[in-house]
Sequence to fold (700 residues):
Amino acid sequence: MTAHQNALHQNAEIANNTHKVTLVEAVNLALHRMMKEDPDVVVLGEDIATNGGVFRATLGLKEQFGCKRVMDTPLAETLIAGVAVGMASQGLKPVAEIQFMGFIYATLEHMIDHAARMRNRTRGRLTCPMVLRAPFGGGIHAPEHHSESTEALFAHIPGLRVVIPSSPARAYGLLISAIQDPDPVVFLEPKRIYRMNPQNVIDDGEGLPLDTCFTLREGSDITLISWGAMIKETLEAADTLQQQNISAEVIDVATISPLDINTLLLSIEKTGRCVIVQEAARSCSVSSDISAQLSEQGLLYLQAPVQRVTGYDIPMPYFKNEHLYMPTTQDILSAAKKALEFV
Amino acid sequence: MTTVKTCTQFIDANGKLTQPLPDSITAERLLEFYKTLVLVRQFDKKTVSLQRTGQLGTCASCLGQEAISAGIGFAMRKDDVLAPYYRDQAAHIIRGVSLTSILQYWGGDERANLFNGEAQQDLPNSIPIATQITHAAGIASAFKIRSEKRAVVTTCGEGATSRGDFYESLNLAGVWQLPMVVVINNNQWAISTPSTLQSHANHFADKAAAAGIEGLRVDGNDICAVYDVVEKSLQKAHAGKGATLIEAMSYRLCDHTTADDATRYRSADEVNQAWKNEPIKRLQTYLFNNTLWSPEQEQQLLSDCQQKIDDTLAQYNAIEAAPASDFFDYLYDTLPDAYQWQREHIQTKSRQMMGGA
Fold:
């Protein structure tokens, strides 16, 4: 029995193809599925083969698919991204892991100068079907540089996709689609909810749509927009609002770039009020852009200014004070109150 | 201290053999070398003059370094892959990229990189320094993963050896025993920075030692030496015996690019001295002295090259503008809904700028 199967047996009720898994296990499941289905899928990164990844996202892959397709690399993030670009130019589908988002910046030159524009600059002769995975976000009491939410850096780059799951099922389905996608995808995994709330996931190889928001909960009074780990607090806020007879629609953006603005516009057309929730620092962020686009295209739907609940414009504090930085359910409720009371 | 001691050379600056030519370099091959070098130099001269007269954008000349890229181009097999920097006009041409495509590149047209011939899987020029070496490592990894007996050649200047990408890639090439040949064009200058300010190593080829791969030096102005050393390194790569770093010694007789003025930082004496060492004259002398070439053939070659360049220019000038929608049509496989309106917007803007409604 491989380590992977072991993990599944320990944690999951297995009925047909259904596994009860956490978000990180769903990532693992999707990687296993795609490596099995497509010999062009290869996985590389630091500590990902023998160790199965520091979060165990790649557990069991080496045992099942061998060292040729599951590669421990030297400790060099620039190299990992560059090698993935080169492999992808040969038609492989590399899934490269960066251990923490705080170390992802060394990949930027390759992601921006090459991955994002390979198709464009060769007019389709060469492409870059790679996935760059990284756990991101705070709230796990990690050391310095292990808790950043800098997704906007990648969301700004034309030619990339930036995808963020917020549940095991979406982690599975979105990662399948990200690997199948013929263009480069930055796949950011909210590590604070890596092991929360296991969910039944059907391992059928079916992807979920990219470039599409997911409406997690329908409502008519206010729209709460978020992605990643903050979906947890956002759903909690919606529950509390429900108790106050306020019907909140909750939308998981999921693909933050390119943005499915239409789903958001349809929602604010219905509710007229909106709160955007993100863990990232406030300025020049994804919430800034969503807010701008809602104003540009949906000003007359809005009955109140768009409210944003965000991290502060400061470096992520060391873990002792990260609770001060992280947006809370109460922050979301206060913003919702402001939006709801605005006349 | 470990240092690479020999610098391979067959034909010296006076056109004299310093050791017998290898069997692989026949008289016929020598003529191929020579004809290609002359074409590349003539074409390069034309490219620069087109820039000077406003018909091309900033371009990087390869003057004086033609033998490195040509030696590589001739040594590579068809199914090998090239991950070049931006002075590899010769290798591109040998691998089937048209002269027109090269003009298109410096003329600011992405369609330049469509590439034909053997270059179908070659990477386009890499402007960000040394990044192509990591891509080459990825391509070589792909060959290894798929058990294909192919190899990748990547090129860079000596300035690029200061970058992390260079070291990281070489390191991986050693650890993973990649089928990869890295050629440093040591043309002595990285814009205004002399090679002595890039490294305190005796030779740039010595940098192979830390990666545990073979490092070799070669007279980059002797195409025979470049060809021989690259070909043997490729044979080694094809045989699964790992990567090689080659330092090819040359001199940048041109400015860095047409936007540079090298008289600001180096002396005319130095450049004049370097001209005595350039790669084409020596081969011509060798060919004449060995009655492999005649003044009549020389005249014919020059006029053939001129004809080719004139034809290229005519073709280049006849190229129609690409539709503005291309920028969106090649952004992703399928354009996301989010950007549809921008695609329409640029089309309208383009029509308006061309004087349409």
